[in-house]
Amino acid sequence: MKKIILAAALIGSAFSALAEEVNIYSYRQPFLIEPMLEKFTEQTGIKTKVVFASSGIVERLQREGKLSPADIVLTSNFAALLQLEEAGLTQPINSEEVNKNVPAQFRDENWVALTKRARAIYSAKTLGDKSDINYEDLATAEYKGQICTRSGKHPYNIGLVSSMIAHHGEEKTLEWLQGVKDNLARRPQGNDRGQVKAIKEGLCTVSLGNSYYLGKMMTDENQKAWAEAVNINFPNQNNRGTHVNVSGVVLTKHSKNQESAVKLIEFLTQDTAQSMYASVNYEYPVKEGVELSELVASWGDFKVDSIAISEAAKYRSDALRLLDQVKFDL
Amino acid sequence: MANTTIVKRPWQISSFLIVAILFAPTLALVFTAMESSQGIFAQLADTVLFDYISNSILMVIGVCLISLLIGLPLAWLVAMCKFPGKRFFSWALVLPLAMPAYIVAYIYSDFFDYAGPVQIWLRNTFGWQSPADYWFFDIRSIPGASVILALVLYPYVYLFLRSAFAQNNLVQMQASRLLGDTPWQSFWRISIPQARGIIVASLALVGMETLADFATMHYFAINTMTTAVYDTWLGYYNLPAAAKLSVLMLAMIFLLLAIEKRQRIDKQNYSRNDSFDNSEMYQLSGGKAWLATGFASLVLFAGFILPSLVLCGFIFDYYDQVWSEEFIEYGSSSLFIALIAAVLAVIVALIINFGLRQSKQTNQLKHTWIQPLPGQLASMGYALPGTVLAIGIIIPMTALEFWSNDVLVEWFDWQPGLFLTGTTFAIIFAYVVRFSAIPIGSVQESMSKISPHLDHASRSMGAGFSKTALRIHLPLLKRILLTSGLLVFIESMKELPAALLLRPFGFETLATYVYQYVSDEQLEHASLAALSIVILGLIPLLIVNRMSQDSLQKKVNSNDSANHNN
Amino acid sequence: MVLAINQLQVSYHQQTILHGVDLNVAQGEIVCLLGSSGCGKTTLLKTIAGLTDVDKGEIEINGNTVNSDHITIAPEHRNLGMLFQDYALFPHLTVHENIAYGLRRLSKKKRNIRVQDMLALVQLPNISDKYPNQLSGGQQQRVALARALAYQPDLLLLDEPFSNIDTKVKFELIAQIRDIIKQSGVAAIFVSHSKDEAYGFADTIALMDEGKIQQTGSPQQLYQQPNSLFVARFMGPLNEIKRTQLPQQATEILAQKQTQPSENDKLFVRPESLSLAPIVDQHNVELQAVVESTTFYGKQVTVTARCYGEVISFYTDSQQHLASGDKVNLYFSTEHLLLAD
To answer: Which N-terminal residues, if any, form the signal peptide (chain A) (predicted)?
Structure first.
């Protein structure tokens, strides 16, 4: 028994690193970030190691405490950044380079946003031009039985509901949520892409979805037809602007390779990585002046929600409560 | 005095020790559940909790019912009847066990979705335009998910019942036939009542697998207790509330286990294994025979062949994207940890069951309810959803790591770091906690059939308990150990959530590799890896099946004596 | 005839187990299928029960054909009772439920009466609510018998019914069960490998070997008038002495007796036919033997002796004191020669 434990322990590879390297906990799928990490290693000679998990990273970091091998955490939404910060698992990044690259509204002492994505409303081409659509419209009778969406409790939707609370207050948001739920064509399911597919098949006519999914679908041979059936609309352009979510990165409190880790964070905010985000995953770079992918650029410019994401994120648990209250997913 | 008793009962003592270790994660959860959830739990109870619970219960009932409807007739047909293709189906019907449920779910929802080929074909054929024009079942629903899970879980029922039917009561069935029963009547009046214990035991497994399933439920957007634990933990960031939900689930599991326990009592096997020859099987002919073949083919097709074909189709379509160099590495990692977990789980099962037998024989425990406790507690892990288990493991394990780091730094100025959670140890431990219920249960079952007379004989010749255990019981249990070990192996190959959460840096299993694509609804790109999980799981599955068929022929001859010594 | 079997042939795995078996059982008759293991007796029983398929031949039960070239009647339609070696009581049912198992067509009242009658018949009146595992082996057997008889079968089949019973109580039980069966008037066939069980239980013995019935007849017939050396040897101890070794006087007397041609170089005689006292009889044969050993059995002593080179045995009463090396004269009547006319 002892021998087996010992053997198992030896085979595991996560003893404190000797060579220069950065250990990454990632909420983002490896195939999204690997191209950038390879570039980084190429440029700096610093190796990277990734653990991808769609859940539980914060908990794991918390438990590992000072023994944690992780240096940075990549998140796919803003809520996770905030959660890491609030749990005291981060430390200030302190980098001139980062401050120079990322506009102040997209960074804080303890976190940096890397990409932006709009919470868009996709509409069937058959509906005609819907570019003046508002999130609020989704609760009106016009869309009765016409809406498809993923789970209300997905961070992207929680973020949207939080911003609704920030703008309209709880009572109005609850009403709105109930209205949207009543308009659903089917129980919330799948991911944003699946909703566009459903529009193509005529199951519904509008759906909520992040902007980059359209890019992904346009470039996938089998999914191109779905994408071509819809228009992407940036809601609330005539008033407060479209809700935007961010992906981001934090430096962990107990990072053992701080220097290399900061180098990686800096690299991720520089033009190379930023434009890779834009071209590989069709997201909006946070760095100003980085060229959008041709496809993303073709969707046009849009106005971003006036309330800062960090402000809206405060209403997160209220948003969850409201979602449960209307039994949005059930 | 106390010392001598410990020395006399090493198995019992070590079984309690092992259980303490295996039960630690559950205990950690229970303690966490006692912390305040800041009103979140109450809030859930006011809104959605009831739906979560009823969905879970409906799922368990649905999957158990469908698994039974599929597994029981198939087991009966294969054990008792001759029909075309019987030899093939006998092993092939086990194959769906190697299919991860979430892959089957993915493939079928693609198939039967509104946007899937089946409904498109229907619309084109009948000229329907919109969903309002016709009714079609929603695969992403509780009935749909029940069918999907039952398609991959029925082999448990099939495997258990097949050997039960073939081993137990041929003579009794002959007796009932001679007392005027038709084959059908004899099936209902003799085989079913006598197999009741096994039926319930296998359904308890199916029920627990269903409760613990996350990936399929999540993919189908069905909110069960398990997905609620996730949501609560990851949405509300509230571990105590999540732990409270987990404990509620544990209570449901306890209920399942208690039901199973009740069924095991008084289930004495009377048959003396009269030499039985296959000539007593029912020879099905004509329509009946083809009905049997057709049913078996349909189940095999739906549970295994179609999903495999779809995976092969993906590989063909995306052949340039599915291969990667790391692939072999992921495969061998999966194999490696699954093998170690299987071996450890078997060892755990042996120690616990030897402990149980020792405590029964020495009778030193005044309270008999303590005797089966180690087995029951150690089996609890089976019911823990992977993520919950992972949290439960991280809590005590990191505590241990902190403590030992502090001690080692102070004494030797050496900081080993996360030597448990930072290595594959944590995953392997999770698998052992989660899956040792399989060997514990089956070893217990087999061991109860070993006559105490064998023990008495061995001990009368001067062999102590341990010597008897190793020289008499171990060889007799060899087959069941291998079989249940291989089942642990297969389950470990497929396991996902715990592996996701507990793996160290740079460590990837086939399942985690596949999941990153499934979570993005792009199984196509991981189709080769998905097929590899299936194929690697197939090899041991075929061995398991081989063994359980052999055991039908060479039957253990010791089960009668237990009846006569009372 | 309750049972008539004509030229039955049965095979299993391409191997012929029964080669042309004929057997008749009359109303109320108890027949023993006797033979050592592998002789086909259990297969024959299962074939009668309909649990094994038939290649050739016919079986009739109570005048109804249950097996022939075109007909195979399912076990449940043969109206047979069977008592299994391990009793095959259903462990999940009580004694009452076990006995009532085959009586579903009766009304509840009649069923209860029948069960009570049966329990009275097997002399176990007060156990109807017990489960099989609460009974002793002998009780289980009688319950199994009650279950089979309650069904009122045309023919009762018993598969090695006494092989699991202690010798001490075995013969008591044999007598009891024989009584019960005789009382109920049912015809019965039982399978056994023990001639002693057959003697105690059967009206007629059918001795089987290599898939054939070698001889059918009453126990006395098979013991005293075996039709082959196999039967003679199977049914009891047999002394076999080469004729060429015998003295003149014996050869002359024996010459008057024809033995079966195939066995004509030996004479066959049961130990109890050998006597130490001369028989005043013209068929009297005298042999000389030297005692080798004696075994004391209470009321008699079995003596092993060497007689013209052959080892033989005979019985004396316990008053006689023979010791190893004693020379004795043994006498027997040619009337008692086996396998002779």
So the answer is: 1-19
